[in-house]
Amino acid sequence: MAGAGISTPSGIPDFRSPGSGLYSNLQQYDIPYPEAIFELTFFFQNPKPFFTLAKELYPGNFRPNLTHYFLRLLHEKGLLLRLYTQNIDGLERVSGIPASKLVEAHGTFASATCTVCLRRCPGEDFWADVLADRVPCCGVCTGIVKPDIVFFGEALPERFLLHVVDFPMADLLVVLGTSLEVEPFASLSEGVRNSVPRVLINQDVVGTFAWRPRSRDVVQLGDVVHSVEKLVKLLGWTEDMRDLVHQETEKVLRMGRKGPSAA
Ligand code: CNA
Question: What one-character DSSP code corresponds to residue 175?
């Protein structure tokens, strides 16, 4: 289970870290209170702040860090049952984790839906407008096209429920970079069997790890990248990790030489 804290080392602020978190720095978005940026009623009055945030998260503006690649390595080694993420930055996909292994619990910019006729479209259809500071509109009915990000009060994607059975099947749960404050995501951390170890890698002790700890819980506090580096070393995967990061860096450099890509 992952949250915004795995992407802060990539330069994307989380919500709640005092001072650096998005909620402390929303002055430039011209919104009455932080949560307004993900509220439907506010979006219909003024969609611009949300699209300003979307523009910042444009794929390609940020790169995955060692934490994302560690999760990819778990997948490569056949150990990743599923990655449940709350993040909307898409860096799990960019790191090479296949969509089938992902549950993007709070949605994705990879697709969008017209708020009027409900026609769905791929992300490529709206990015040109967002990058040009225009609110994207439906080609069929002219309604506002909203990226498939889950706003407050909206239903979670179907995949959330589809794969929730993973939790009782897992034999290890790793929770990284989340305050475990948002439900129903947070409660998933209690979905594994009691005998199953749960590892929290975070800046601070959060959620059920604080108020209903289990005897087999392991808590590793501090910076997520530093903690993941330590774990990789303990697992004897340092070389595999280095090779994967090298391979991905080469890929980016090759793409760079070919010119900018929309991906
Ligand atoms: P949050 O509530 O902001 O909590 C982040 C947690 O990560 C906190 O406990 C921090 O202490 C911890 N943290 C931050 N940086 C580090 C670090 N370098 N090392 C270790 N721990 C760190 O974020 P959650 O994900 O728990 O909250 C859920 C919200 C946040 C979801 O709805 C997301 O859509 C939303 N969000 C996503 C992004 C993104 O996609 N990158 C960014 C900001 C917010």
Answer: E
Alpha helix ranges (H) inside the chain? 40-45, 48-56, 66-76, 91-94, 124-131, 158-162, 166-169, 207-211, 224-235, 238-257
The question of whether 106 is a catalytic residue gets the answer yes
Q: Is 147 helix (H, G, I), strand (E, B) or coil?
A: strand
Binding-site residues, ligand 1, Cβ < 6 A? 3-5, 7-9, 12, 14-17, 21-22, 86-89, 106, 177-179, 181-182, 202-204, 206, 223-224
Q: Is the pLDDT confidence value at 183 over 70?
A: yes
Kindly give, in sequence order, each residue whose CB lies less than 8 Å from that of residue 236, ignoring residues fewer than 6 positions away: none
Q: Of 97, 95, 125, 96, whose CA–CA distance to 110 is shortest?
A: 125
Q: Is the peptide bond before 184 cis (omega within 30 degrees of 0)?
A: yes
Q: List, for residues 82-133, the tens digit of each pLDDT value.
A: 999 999 999 999 999 999 999 999 999 999 999 999 999 998 899 999 999 9
Count Cβ atoms within 10 A of the Cβ of residue 140 and give its class: 0-12 exposed, 13-18 middle, 19 or more buried. Answer: exposed
Query: Which of the following is catalytic: 75, 106, 163, 226?
Result: 106
The phi and psi torsions of 96 (rounded to 5 degrees) equal 105, 10
Report the length, in residues, of the chain: 263
Residue 8 labeled ligand binder: yes
Pocket probe mutation, ligand 1, options 6, 10, 14, max atoms within 8 Å of Cβ: 14
